[in-house]
Amino acid sequence: MTPTKADHHTLTVYYRDKPIATHTRSWERRKRVELPSHREAAKKQQRQIWRSQEIAAFISLGEEAKTYLERLTATNQPVKKNLRKLLKLKDEYGSFALIKAIKKASIHNAYGSHYIENILYQDMTPRKYHPPVRVKQENLNRIRLQEPSLAQYDAFVIKRRKDHD
After folding, report:
1. Closest to 33 in 3D by CA, of 56, 13, 7, 52
2. Which end of the chain has fewer CB atoms at under 10 Å, N or C?
3. Cα 69 from Cα 55, distance rounded (Å)
4. Distance of alpha carbon 92 from its chain centroid, rounded?
5. First to last CA, the chain
6. CA–CA distance, 25 with 102 (Å, rounded to integer)
7. How does the average pLDDT of the chain come out, rounded?
8. Could you report the per-residue pLDDT of 11-49, keeping only the tens digit for each?
């Protein structure tokens, strides 16, 4: 929850003890007060999130992952936090198990990394986890690679078998 302070005339919103927005106080019930510049800044931030390497790595898992992420975003949960956890679960349990858990969660409209973690925990024991090597340059630790498509390999093998027959 975002901390706020209010008096009879203004409302101030704080983030990490610093004021980030001040609005004229409205006494109307359920009225949303926001500045157009704040809305634009939020949209810009959302677009930046969707361009991240983590998003690309997650979406490379397939259409189920992409759809799950879109629906997760619609729940107004913290996307980055959930995405990092989902990618960590992929590393622990493998891509196949993660997609299986995503399909199961989607059936029940359960969106959030905690749901996926619970499903994976209930369904299986994680494979042996070897954490990635950490280097001093933090930006290098955030690099994520897209999951390779095995369909291309399968097509190559089938074609090769046909050529040899």
Report:
1. 13
2. N
3. 9
4. 17
5. 65
6. 42
7. 84
8. 888 877 888 878 888 888 887 777 777 777 767 766 665
Q: Give, in order, the Cα–Cα distances in Å from 38 to each of 7, 23, 48, 162.
A: 22, 11, 15, 60
Other CB atoms within a 10 A radius of the CB of residue 55 amount to: 19
Count Cα neighbours of 155 within 13 Å in the Cβ-side half-sphere.
4
In the predicted model, residues of the chain with pLDDT beneath 70 are: 1-2, 42, 45-51, 125-129
The phi, psi pair for 148, rounded to 5°, reads -70, 150
Burial, 83: exposed, middle or buried (Cβ in 10 Å; 0-12, 13-18, 19+)?
buried
Number of Cβ within 10 Å of residue 94's Cβ equals 15
CA angle 143, 144, 150 (to 5 degrees): 150
